[in-house]
Design a protein that fits this description.
Layout lengths: L1 E3 L1 H8 L5 H9 L4 E4 H14 L2 H11 L3 E3 L3 H14 L3 H12 L3 E4 L10 E3 L6
Parallel strand pairs: 1-2, 1-4, 2-3, 4-5
Helix pairs in contact: 1-2, 1-3, 3-4, 5-6
InterPro entries: PIN-like_dom_sf, PIN_dom
Pfam families: PIN (PF01850)
Protein name: PilT domain-containing protein
Length: 126
């Protein structure tokens, strides 16, 4: 199973320099998990930068994977991970969700560098 965090989805939708890194996880929809928090973050960012129709199209594509709700169990695991790894709330929720479902987390977010179970590629600064 794979889980692409919000920055990965945004990189993919913007066709950024690392977009191709995320293609294998995003196109394998049978093995793709999509946290509801990722839907929120991606919809919000695209809505701010473009318009509602573009944001709706993006989340429709994301929902081709299995959407995973934020449960109490995942929330508590995320809180522990936030403390252990000094992660922000959203990052810890992504990691806790990936771990709950034994999924690999795909990201270019430097907060995840070196964490077990994370497939990380450094963001290209342009």
């Amino acid at each position: 199973m794979n889980l692409v965090d919000s920055c990965g989805w945004l990189e993919y939708f913007a066709d950024g320099d690392n977009a191709g890194f995320f293609v294998p996880a995003i196109t394998d929809t049978a093995n793709l998990l999509v946290p509801t928090l990722a839907l929120f973050e991606v919809f919000k960012r695209i809505l701010q930068q473009r318009e509602e129709n573009a944001a709706l199209q993006a989340v429709a594509m994301m929902q081709q994977g299995a959407v995973v709700d934020l449960t109490a169990d995942i929330s508590l695991s995320a809180a522990k991970l936030a403390v252990t790894h000094k992660l922000p709330m959203a990052d810890s929720v992504m990691l806790a969700t990936a771990r709950r479902y034994q999924a690999r987390l795909w990201t270019q977010d430097g907060d995840f560098e070196g964490i077990e179970g994370v497939h990380y590629r450094r963001k290209v600064m342009g």
